Amino acid sequence: MRYMMIIHHDAEAMAKAPQQELWAEYAAFNQALNKAGEGFSGGLRLSPGKQGTVVRSSGGKTDVLDGPYADTREQLAGYFFIDVPDIEQAVEWANRCPSSKYGAIEIRPIVEQTAS
User: Fold this and answer.
1) pTM for the structure as a whole
2) How many CB atoms lie within 10 A of CB 75?
């Protein structure tokens, strides 16, 4: 089953993390993902939430909000795709992700397209 691992980290905690060690851990994690084979992909890192823009459309009106929509310590930071047999193995991969020490990794199954 394909899953998306969505990284939510605390930017303040990440800033205090030992940077050289953190990026070495991420390099090893990405290498493990790449070695895992088809259905796995190295992740993409997003800009900080304060650089984001939220767009909402309702009743013909468009509202644009600068910065993160949610007022929370943890912000969406990036994501990975994995393809494993079950949620237990997805949890194992999420636990290996370096950002799991500085926030949370949300795991969501990918809705597979069905032939019509």
Assistant:
1) 0.77
2) 21
* Residues 6 or more apart whose Cβ sits within 8 Å of residue 54: 64, 65, 67, 68, 69
CATH number of the CATH domain containing 83: 3.30.70.1060
Encode pLDDT of 74-105 as tens digits.
778 889 999 999 999 999 999 999 999 988 89
Q: What is the pLDDT of residues 28-45, one digit of tens each?
A: 998 999 899 888 887 778
Q: Is residue 115 part of a domain?
A: no
Residue 23: give the domain boundaries. Answer: 2-109
